Target: Heptaprenyl diphosphate synthase component 2
Amino acid sequence: MSKTAYEIIKNELKEVESLIRNQFSGNFGLISQAINSTVLSGGKRLRPALLLLCAKAGKNYDKSKALNLACAVELIHAATLIHDDIVDDSKFRRGMPTLQSLFGKDAAVYAGDYVLIKAFNFLYSVKDFDIINLFSRVMEKIVKGEIKQKEDVFKVISFTDYFKRIKKKTALLFGLSCEVGGIIAGTDNDKIRALKNFGINFGIAFQIIDDILDYTGNREILGKSPGNDIKEGVITLPLLLAIASPHYKDSLLQLIEGIKTGEDNSSRIVEIVLESGAIERSKEFARRILEKSIRSLSPIENLTVKSALESLALSSIERTF
Amino acid sequence: MSKTAYEIIKNELKEVESLIRNQFSGNFGLISQAINSTVLSGGKRLRPALLLLCAKAGKNYDKSKALNLACAVELIHAATLIHDDIVDDSKFRRGMPTLQSLFGKDAAVYAGDYVLIKAFNFLYSVKDFDIINLFSRVMEKIVKGEIKQKEDVFKVISFTDYFKRIKKKTALLFGLSCEVGGIIAGTDNDKIRALKNFGINFGIAFQIIDDILDYTGNREILGKSPGNDIKEGVITLPLLLAIASPHYKDSLLQLIEGIKTGEDNSSRIVEIVLESGAIERSKEFARRILEKSIRSLSPIENLTVKSALESLALSSIERTF
Model:
């Protein structure tokens, strides 16, 4: 029986956890909430896990580099979460918020900046300009993707644009984590490419699943009620697929128009999407892309790492299947 | 007659301008407004000017390094402007803003991130980890300062805390620009320190003047009405000095309390501050710190650079005197 992914890197993940916690051990006053709910939330540390596993795929295992870069990818993820949260929540402010909640919320702009700067510090510490350039290019694309998503709010985008969006939103950082792991492991270029492709496709599947959960999940799983994306004007795969079906198109477009003018149509939209069969078709997309991600691991010779990455990918998709 | 500071580096500043514009030549959609009003506003480029001048203070003049780092300091400044603007404006939102303005504003969170990433790209391009570390440490302090300023909103802070605040808000980036210029110029450590101290004290004086202008300026100069800082709960030197005077203390504290509960007391506060003589005393502070900044240039042997820096500092203070 193969070890699970998290067992192989259990000790490293503990070290990542304490490296991060050491950087955020002070009193953060106004931004504490933003820091606690992201950086210190004790999440799965999926991106560090990918990086640490891939860092074991080759002949070299540079633990110190791997740990520092694992912290960097996790903190970049946390910083985007914080800034997304500011953007997402703001339109739900009704009337005048209290001074305290207002400054707390707005100060989260700086919380994100602070976390990002800490991410850069981990990145610089490995003193490798090729890796810095990789990070830098990916981060630019991620931010461009976020801006595009805001521009496309309430737009029924094409499937191509949807996949481009989630690639930037999620998959590029997964891909970077795997690629960078492969680089510091000293593997060949074709293996580095294989790891990167695995990461990107895994990330795409992961985000599709996330988008499905926004329709099928309950408050307990999501920490928020279903239909949150469409409330914010973000039209994801399940809704795109439902709209693509002539039977549901008109009523869905009308309900979406209604949300723009303040109508509370999200639960009705969720109902129609569930009824339309779009969830099953979305899952089919996710499954196929996940299979593709696993196939791209074929050049990887280290079977422990290979099977750990596979199990990591498969277990994440089990959230919905 | 000595050349003015800007004449000496006229060509370099043009190059900085086009290097920056090249990075921001596309269509920025939702974030265009944030980009145009900061990065592309055609400001004085004071921080690049400091860096470029100091880069000429030694035996080496590495133009390429100087240009790239000049772009980096300017874009860091622009990014903080963008994020400050989000934070500052938000509490003036009354009722529900339009969808378009709302997303445009919120997308500015990403505009700031984008500009910051571009700043890092310029920084990395010089491939010097000592300089990266200097930038990184300063940026962390700047963000911490911004958070502290939010925490201290409407608080009558001590003079010491006020000077700490403006050091972080403005002076550290001035100091960094000068220090980094000195480093790439290959000057001795004592000269680098002299340039850094010049920059920091110049920055402190510069920010005091900015804080004075918020009381004495008119809409034409400021682009906003006087009393803007106190509307946002930011208590600066002129108001602190007025509060320190027993004759004005109680009425000012009462008016400040009123602003917290929504009263429109800012013009009354501006009147009292002007009447109290606090402006003259603030100017005296600025003048003394500016003199200190100029005195710290004494170890600088390159007289052209030295007098250019002096004239740059003096001309900026002429805004109020």
